[in-house]
Give the backbone structure.
Amino acid sequence: MTLLDVENLWVKFPSRQGVFDAVRGVSFTLGRERLAIVGESGSGKSMTGRAILRLIRPPGIVTADQVSLEGVDLMQKTEREMRDVRGKRVSMVMQDPKFSLNPVMTIGQQIIEAYRLHNKARKSIAYENALSMLEAVSIRDPERVMRAYPHEMSGGMGQRIMIAMMLIPSPEILIADEPTSALDVSVQRQVLSIIDTLVRDRGMGLIFISHDLNLVADFCDRVLIMYSGRIVEVCDAKNLHEAKHPYTRGLLNSLPRLNAPRKKLDVLSRDPAWSEAPSVSGRI
Amino acid sequence: MTMLTVENLCVWFGGGRDRVDAVRQASFHVERGASFGLVGESGSGKSTILRAIMGLAPNWSGAISVDDQPVTKKREKAFYKTVQMVFQDPYASLHPRHSVDQVLGETLHLHGFRDIDARVVKLLDDVGLGGKFRFRYPHQLSGGQRQRVAIARALAPEPSILLLDEPTSALDVSVQAEILNLLTDLRSEQKLTYVMVSHDLSVVGHMCEQLAVMKDGEIVEIMDVETLRTAQARHAYSQELLAASI
């Protein structure tokens, strides 16, 4: 079943040197699955995530044949109607909790606000829900955390709070933009398994944006590999290590491996033809 | 022959009830020409050890010696000709309004070199940038190019020890490979000694022959890279860290 259908998505930024195309004609679908978008910085992966939620502000321009959420085209909606989509139906976890939480509001206030924006509920009910959501992201002592401010939290806790806040309106799709790259390896796994359980239990669709190929191979179902604004390859996550495109191979080979020591790492040599080749469709 | 010795190093911040012991009783030594890794999660004190060696952490006790010369609280100029550091974030460690030429030229001038012009050219060649980057500003460079400039700056006084604080963690994997190769080449060409901090075990496994695992300010285990590759870590925490990164 298709939750989200993106067809021919472009993101453009006019500049003094002409129009810069950050995303160039990307198409993919998302079902109730874990879909990964990987690529280097500047490949347009975050822009794709933001464009779905129409979070790109002018002068940036977003065009698409369609971005349909269960049959309704998001591109046709007014800004007011979009507010009901953001958070309630599609929500987004950003990279760094330090810059995404409001520093002058307690965590409790922020989560309750997220809940009450989308549910007509009394404060006490919202509080109970916020508390159980914090428990669901395995935060010990949630009552204390509800009273605390973001600066009192560690990076891993901050990110789990963000996840709690994004999931409390129970959206159908979660877009996670590098949710773990600001975290330690040991905390990374923990946060991922929390996202995993919540996404599976609620039957949500997940778009997981990352630059970490190994992580994505373990964690997701399907992978889109992006290069200079286009999708160059689509494959199943479990077959990622047998990927065929020279760019994907180059990325995989440039990683140092513990079990296969080498004197020198392979360096990616870029072929201009990669960015010229038409985008591969990720639609099923 | 031992190039760097650290014995019973303690580093603390604050005082009274706000005192934080960031590093406790850390001891290790690095041979000349070797490469030593420090791994651990954030807050374990691995960067603080580098900062203490460099003189950037004011409160420390214990003994540090470089090339059999004990390091005093007040660092001599000669110390900075022997030991240099490369920082984690290439976006933050270069002066935004100084061109590459100014950054390198100033360092060379401070260390009393005369032939600055020729040396700037040579430094840029050494790190694979070439002359056309000489008069650019940091915002005109990519992350990998900036890290190359930061490495060139560290190499300017012709040091024998480079302290590398997560030199690639802000970079893409493809750029990381380029920088790691550059560091490998520079080490063999210029007979450098490295102390490298990273949270990525595979990077440390690639670059270093020996490594120390840190937890809560203490070194819990020192092992060689073979032990790491065959996953024979003895301490429970090192095993946990290994399991999380494979």
